[in-house]
């Protein structure tokens, strides 16, 4: 063979026409004036033999003696025997058949590669012809003219069970990682080969004819998915490469963490950033409810008059009387018929509550007892004036109420009961107040006032305004008898000094007052009025309760000269009191200091008032134009036919407490017109800025 490269002629590619459509592997050359050659991808992806693991290199030296159909590197040498993949061709060149003869042609002649000077040529074995590669019609080159480069990344030592390669091919070759990007030969640049990793030591080869080590060209395979190098290692090869990779990755992770730590320390404050610092001082939390004092700007009569001018002139209010007072100074800021008696409706409960707080101990409780009757097996229920006893625990509208079941269990523990009696002698006089209407019983406003009943006489224990019974004492006694196993209950008197078999107690008086004001409960109010009467030595009746309330308030300095009322709850339409009396009682409760002895006792009256838009009878009010008063107004409502009232307190925008009372006599719709108009008046006091 001549020393100079031999270029194939046009006829050399004649046999490749049949494989022109096969996917090919492109081999790139180092410069644009040298040819490009491509190998069929189908040949490379053919199934591996049982003699050697699959490798992805398309070109290897072929040792003599390798069986037909495969080269030493696993590259097929028979046609397109493997299944083809997607085309991996690039621009330029044309597709060719696999390396080797077509089906039916003679087997390809083995060759070897020899370097000569700065060139490499393919020379045949003795008495064999040179095998040339099928290349395009353009400029082409043989493998022996490819430029020097580093060995392929997948050059591995053959397994010992394969045929031995030639001695010159068993020399250790440096392992090289597969290039990350594929380039054609004509795009490669001459550069210094990178530093190779340390070679794995191998035993010295047996004596043989030494031939120059072939220069290998790493031929990238396009369209072939990369795999980790350790997956291509042979079974008998040590795991050094894998261990090295793990060590390198571990060192990289450690270095990255160290670098990140140094960067964070330097970037975010140096060594101070990692110092332990003391916790920050506690936040200065401001309470949601702010205390009001007399130090806020004082309102003036002119300012209040201007604020109420529009709301008070609303025609839906009919005849309006009222009063506004500054409790800090006692000054009257606004009056309109404030000394003229008018129907207060349920706002009269302010007077009963004030009398109870001034005369009764806040911790006093109402006691209901069961004593031994005159006959064996007979028990007598002694009504103690507690209308809040719960007949169905969990459904009571009275917080902290005692339960009938508790009383029953105490009595049953003492022995069997065959007969039940109930004693209602604690109260005297009529059970219904003057000018009360029996229709109010079914309407849920009231029940006959007796000293023993369940749930204020309600049929439905959980319905505040539900229907009440006309005989609450009998109904309660029957419920007790049924639960202790007796046939029924009858009225009777308790023997003097009889043994007590059971006793239950109500919530404290202070809580009872709060509850009666929140839900405007008429029955509970009348019961408290009778307790005031008993405490002050008056009879426990409507008249006795009214007299006791008047006496207690008069004793404490309130002027009731023009006040005339016949019950304690305000249910009677004949009740008449001036608006000024209500504001005087509220002023005493709202004074900023405790210099007045009445103030400390009356303070719970303020917290017992329903909150606008929040609780009690004001929970569903203060919408629309009255919304600014929501949460700031606390007041007792009053409603009768043609009568509406509102009396309470408000904190204005300057932080000053104002007390007020408004009473309206109007035929207009109370729910949609009169009550909303009264709410607007109180809300105007909230936003007046009256200084």
UniProtKB/TrEMBL annotation:
Entry EC no(s): 3.4.16.4
Signal peptide (residue range): none
Keyword Protease among UniProt keywords: yes
Annotated stretches, region: Disordered: 1-237
Record key words, sorted: Carboxypeptidase, Hydrolase, Protease
Entry-linked SUPFAM superfamilies: beta-lactamase/transpeptidase-like
Compositional bias of kind Basic and acidic residues: 113-130, 167-198
Pfam families with a match to the protein in the record: Peptidase_S13
GO molecular-function terms, A-Z: serine-type D-Ala-D-Ala carboxypeptidase activity
Listed Acidic residues bias regions: 1-14
Keyword Hydrolase among UniProt keywords: yes
InterPro entries with a match to the protein in the record: Beta-lactam/transpept-like, Peptidase_S13
UniProt xrefs under NCBIfam families: PBP4
Family designation: Belongs to the peptidase S13 family.
Xref: PANTHER family: D-ALANYL-D-ALANINE CARBOXYPEPTIDASE, PENICILLIN-SENSITIVE CARBOXYPEPTIDASE A
Protein name, entry field: D-alanyl-D-alanine carboxypeptidase/D-alanyl-D-alanine-endopeptidase
Species this chain originates from: Lentzea sokolovensis
């Amino acid at each position: 063979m001549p020393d100079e490269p031999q270029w194939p002629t046009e006829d050399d590619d004649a046999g490749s026409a049949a494989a022109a459509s096969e996917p090919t592997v492109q081999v790139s050359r180092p410069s644009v004036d040298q040819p490009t050659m491509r190998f069929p991808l189908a040949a490379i992806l053919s199934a591996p033999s049982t003699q050697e693991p699959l490798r992805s290199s398309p070109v290897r030296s072929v040792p003599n003696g390798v069986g037909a159909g495969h080269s030493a590197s696993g590259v097929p040498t028979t046609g397109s025997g493997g299944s083809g993949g997607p085309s991996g061709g690039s621009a330029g060149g044309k597709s060719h058949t696999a390396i080797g003869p077509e089906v039916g042609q003679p087997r390809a002649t083995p060759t070897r590669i020899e370097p000569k000077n700065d060139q490499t040529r393919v020379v045949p074995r003795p008495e064999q012809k040179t095998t040339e590669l099928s290349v395009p019609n353009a400029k082409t080159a043989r493998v022996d003219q490819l430029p020097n480069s580093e060995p392929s990344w997948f050059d591995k030592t053959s397994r010992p069970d394969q045929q031995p390669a030639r001695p010159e091919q068993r020399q250790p070759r440096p392992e090289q990682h597969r290039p990350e990007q594929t380039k054609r030969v004509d795009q490669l640049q001459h550069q210094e080969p990178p530093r190779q990793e340390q070679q794995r030591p191998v035993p010295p080869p047996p004596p043989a004819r030494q031939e120059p080590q072939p220069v290998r060209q790493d031929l990238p395979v396009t369209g072939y998915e990369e795999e980790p190098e350790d997956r291509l290692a042979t079974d008998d090869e040590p795991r050094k490469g894998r261990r090295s990779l793990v060590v390198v990755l571990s060192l990289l992770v450690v270095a990255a963490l160290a670098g990140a730590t140094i960067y964070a320390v330097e970037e975010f404050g140096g060594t101070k950033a990692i110092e332990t610092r003391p916790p920050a001082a506690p936040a200065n939390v401001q309470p949601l409810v702010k205390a009001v004092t007399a130090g806020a700007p004082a309102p003036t009569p002119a300012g209040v008059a201007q604020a109420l001018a529009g709301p008070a002139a609303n025609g839906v209010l009919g005849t309006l009387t009222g009063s506004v007072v500054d409790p800090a100074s006692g000054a009257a800021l606004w009056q309109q018929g404030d000394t003229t008696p008018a129907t207060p409706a349920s706002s009269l409960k302010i007077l009963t509550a004030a009398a109870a707080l001034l005369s009764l101990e806040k911790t006093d409780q109402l006691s209901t007892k069961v004593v031994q009757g005159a006959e064996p097996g007979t028990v007598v229920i002694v009504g103690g004036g507690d209308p809040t006893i719960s007949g169905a625990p969990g459904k009571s509208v009275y917080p902290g109420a005692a339960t009938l079941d508790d009383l029953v269990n105490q009595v049953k523990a003492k022995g069997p009961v065959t007969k039940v009696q109930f004693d209602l002698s604690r109260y005297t006089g009529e059970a219904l107040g003057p000018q009360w209407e029996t229709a109010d019983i079914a309407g849920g406003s009231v029940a006959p006032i007796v000293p023993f009943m369940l749930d204020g006489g309600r049929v439905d224990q959980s319905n505040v305004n539900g229907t009440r019974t006309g005989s609450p004492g009998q109904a309660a006694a029957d419920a007790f008898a049924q639960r202790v196993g007796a046939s029924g209950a009858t009225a009777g008197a308790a023997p003097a000094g009889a043994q007590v078999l059971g006793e239950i107690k109500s919530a404290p008086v202070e809580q009872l007052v709060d509850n009666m004001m929140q839900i405007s409960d008429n029955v509970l109010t009348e019961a408290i009025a009778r307790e005031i009467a008993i405490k002050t030595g008056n009879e426990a009746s409507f008249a006795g309760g009214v007299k006791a309330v008047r006496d207690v308030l008069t004793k404490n300095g309130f002027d009731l000269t023009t006040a005339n009322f016949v019950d304690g709850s305000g249910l009677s339409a004949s009740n008449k009191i001036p608006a000024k009396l209500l504001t005087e009682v509220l002023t005493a409760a709202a004074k900023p200091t405790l210099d007045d002895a009445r103030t400390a006792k009356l303070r719970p009256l303020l917290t017992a008032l329903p909150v606008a838009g929040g609780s009690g009878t004001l929970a569903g009010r203060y919408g629309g134009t009255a919304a600014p008063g929501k949460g700031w107004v606390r007041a007792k409502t009053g409603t009768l036919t043609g009568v509406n009232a509102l009396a309470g307190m408000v904190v204005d925008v300057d932080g000053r407490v104002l007390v007020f009372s408004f009473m309206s006599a109007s035929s207009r719709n109370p729910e949609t017109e009169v009550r909303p108009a009264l709410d607007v008046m109180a809300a105007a006091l909230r936003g007046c800025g009256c200084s």
